[in-house]
Design brief:
This protein has about 200 residues and is of the alpha+beta class. The chain contains six helices and 14 strands. β10 and β11 form a beta hairpin.
């Protein structure tokens, strides 16, 4: 974990186990993304151009879908605060209109969105955070679908909620495949369309 020197010295000296929502909300708005998972602070730098290009293509696909099927809201980079020790900022979330009324408090989501999407950033720490730590958090908190978009392999790993709870991998989609969603009726996303140059 890399923490910038712009942070107050008091914050730099505290052990990871002491992180909570109050301290998390004191962190500077310095271009880094700070996430709190089970009391551990995760820091990542601003996303790359390619990361944002892929994100934009997914947003466009959602926007086109929601224009014809106005069943909810898709929002990039919004905070999801589960409790005092868990607050994350997924790259993109989808929440149905009905659920949004229940979980939007003070401009933040206070419970799981139906869909959380993460686009992998380079580096083993980033991959571990998204593939393991966040997946585990989303699994126990009730996310219905978790999409892990991998720019390096040009693939999307699709996780879905099981009937007995938790997420399981249901597909590893490659270019040539089409992503469909149990949450979004009639949604179709050709995988190649988000990785096109």
């Amino acid at each position: 974990m890399t923490v910038t020197t712009k942070m107050p010295e008091l914050l730099l000296r505290s052990p990871a186990a002491d992180w909570n929502r109050a301290r998390w909300e004191q962190l500077p708005d310095d271009g880094n993304r700070y996430e709190l998972i089970e009391g551990e602070l995760f820091v990542s730098t601003a996303p790359t151009f390619f990361h944002q290009k892929i994100l934009t293509k997914i947003i466009i696909a959602f926007w086109q879908y929601l224009r014809e099927h106005p069943i909810g809201e898709m929002v990039p980079g919004t905070g999801v605060v589960f409790d005092d020790f868990n607050g994350v900022i997924p790259d993109l979330v989808f929440v149905t209109s009905e659920r949004l009324k229940k979980i939007l408090v003070g401009g933040r989501l206070t419970a799981a969105p139906e869909i959380a999407i993460e686009i992998l950033s380079p580096g083993t720490a980033n991959e571990r955070r998204d593939r393991t730590v966040k997946r585990n958090l989303y699994s126990v908190r009730g996310v219905h679908e978790y999409w892990i978009v991998d720019p390096e392999t040009r693939s999307i790993e699709l996780h879905r909620k099981r009937k007995e709870g938790g997420l399981e991998v249901v597909a590893n989609l490659q270019c040539g495949d089409e992503l469909t969603s149990a949450v979004l009726p009639d949604f179709r996303l050709p995988v190649d369309s988000i990785f096109e140059d």
